[in-house]
Specification:
By secondary structure, the chain is α+β, with helices and mostly antiparallel strands. It is built from 12 helices and 10 strands. 43% of the residues lie in helices and 19% in strands. The radius of gyration is 40 Å and the shape is elongated. The termini are far apart. 28% of the residues are buried.
Length: 361
């Protein structure tokens, strides 16, 4: 034997040509593709078995080599190896093509994945996000630095440091959810303490975020809502600075013709304390039956006051040198007023029509 039998070579050539023809047919996208793929794979297995397996033709040829004359052995050995490599290469190529087609079949489906786009279907920012962003821009314009807040708090930062001792009745107003090692904060005033501890005065800061209270849900209350806290500490900060700042904020956010009104109030962390109302922008104080101000002409929007010297002392700021004001408002209430949203629960219901009505693209 000086060369590989032509019969063997022809056999391989015929088999592989037949398989290749069948692979060509896979390009036609007809319904029998799956069946054709199975047939081709079977035929490839047969070629492997017949030529490359332990008892296959190539092994048999190689086993014959030792019996041959060294010169012939070398030449024939090379030929057998070339044939073996060719078979392996061709089987690999065909397998890859067939498997690619198989994947295409597996993952293709008749569902139309295109989208008929219209601006009506576009995603929108939730109205609470828009209100928070607008409020932040107004206060940033007024020189307030924006701080992130933390929602999982300890009693010290939520109460004690703000001059609300353990047995103080004011805690009842701000009752919250307790768990091992912490509470969910009841207001953003915790950030007054955290920012004051982090940064020496002068400070002009706001912080926005979620708060939690053990309140029952109704049209104006939720157990989870958002607040914006703002405060300013410097030498000789007075109540007039507080009024001026809030007045400018109201004019920028609600409109230039809006008036503000302050009535005395009580918060343990501010002294004196006040509640601020704005003149009704809905009826311009002209409608006794107004559904927004209920005929009073005023809408209360926030609590505020001069930071209690006890709070300043608690964070190591000398109240004889520094003074400050602080204010806090509920974001949902501001949004409800500004956009005339009748019920706080609408913010959280994930109702798509609500977002289409009030959200912004
Ligand atoms: C406070 O939380 C004070 N920390 C605000 C403050 C800050 C006063 C700095 C002085 C200086 P109050 O409990 O009133 O105050 O809450 C403020 C606002 O949060 C309310 O006016 C209201 O808009 C909103 N709010 C309170 N409880 C709820 C609730 N359960 N659901 C929705 N909004 C609420």
């Amino acid at each position: 034997m000086k060369a590989i039998d032509q019969e063997i070579l022809d056999k391989y050539k015929n088999l592989i040509t037949e398989i290749k023809k069948e692979v060509e047919l896979l390009k036609e996208n007809n319904q029998e593709l799956k069946e054709k793929i199975i047939q081709i794979k079977k035929k490839l297995e047969l070629v492997k078995l017949e030529f490359l397996s332990k008892k296959g033709i190539i092994s048999k040829l190689l086993n014959e080599l030792p019996k041959l004359d060294p010169q012939v052995r070398k030449q024939l050995g090379t030929e057998i190896n070339i044939l073996k490599q060719n078979i392996e290469k061709e089987i690999k190529e065909i397998t890859q093509t067939v498997e690619k087609k198989e994947r295409e079949l597996k993952y293709s489906c008749n569902v139309d994945l295109s989208i008929n786009f219209s601006p009506d279907n576009a995603g929108r920012f939730h109205i609470l996000t828009i209100v928070q962003q607008d409020l932040m821009s107004v206060f940033a314009e007024l020189g307030f630095e924006i701080f992130d807040g933390i929602e999982i708090e300890d009693e010290y930062h939520n109460f004690e440091a703000l001059n609300i001792p353990k047995d103080h009745p004011a805690r009842d107003m701000w009752d919250t959810f307790y768990f091992n090692g912490g509470i969910l904060r009841t207001h953003t005033s915790n950030m007054q303490i955290r920012i004051m501890k982090q940064k020496p005065p002068p400070i002009k800061a706001i912080s926005i975020g979620k708060c939690y209270r053990r309140d029952n849900m109704d049209a104006t209350h939720s157990f989870q809502f958002h607040q914006l806290e703002g405060f300013c500490i410097d030498k000789q900060v007075t109540f007039i600075d507080l009024i001026k700042t809030l007045y400018i904020f109201v004019n920028k956010y609600f409109g230039e013709d809006i008036k503000v009104n302050f009535v005395p109030s009580y918060f343990p962390f501010t002294e004196p304390s006040a509640e601020m109302s704005i003149s009704c922008f809905y009826c311009s104080q002209k409608n006794e039956n107004c559904k927004i101000c209920k005929g009073s002409g005023w809408i209360e929007i926030l609590g505020c006051g001069m930071i209690n010297p006890i709070v300043l002392k608690n964070v190591g700021i000398d109240p004889d040198q520094f003074s400050g004001f602080a204010f806090g408002m509920g974001i949902e209430r501001i949004a409800m007023l500004k956009y005339q949203i009748p019920d706080i629960r609408m913010f959280y219901q994930n109702y798509i029509e609500f977002n289409k009505l009030w959200g912004e693209v």
